[in-house]
């Protein structure tokens, strides 16, 4: 087996493993959506820790994949910084056609996983933002909603502290 064939197979396996981790991150992202909507903060915190570990593992895998890609670029006569999936697919189609279907599949799966993960993360960020806005509105109902007063230098004025606040709930001591 040629060295290029071995590098290509290792590269394909590397991307396939990354795809598995990305799919796991997407599943965690969907679980996170459910926890955000349900307001389960403790469970969300635990899930975020799992997600952090998974991202750390993905980072290590990405480093290994990048090294393989650099070696492939050198072996195939490309500059590492100009070596793209499109160029690799074109070369493999001509140079190692037996590996082309597997490479194309893992690259397409990688693209799908990244697009899916980006959409899930975007949706989660929107949910978190909505939750923060809601929390802010509830706090203003309980504590009173007083607009801040600022000096000409942009500092919050002491006058803000002396203004009475409207409280919807009475406190008994």
What does this structure look like?
The structure is a single chain. This protein has helices at 3-38, 41-76, 85-95, 100-143, 159-162. The protein is mainly alpha-helical and 173 residues long. It starts with a helix and ends in an 11-residue tail after the last helix.
Helix content: over 70%
SSE pattern, N- to C-terminal: HHHHH
Number of E strands: 0
For the biggest sheet, the summary is: none
- Low-pLDDT ranges: none
User: Rg to the nearest angstrom?
Assistant: 26 Å
Mean pLDDT: 85
Count of alpha/pi helices: 5
Q: First CA to last CA: what distance? A: 82 Å
Helix/strand-derived category reads: mainly alpha
* Shape, per Cα inertia axes: elongated
Strand content: under 5%
Notable characteristics:
mainly alpha, 173 residues, elongated, 76% helix, 5 helices
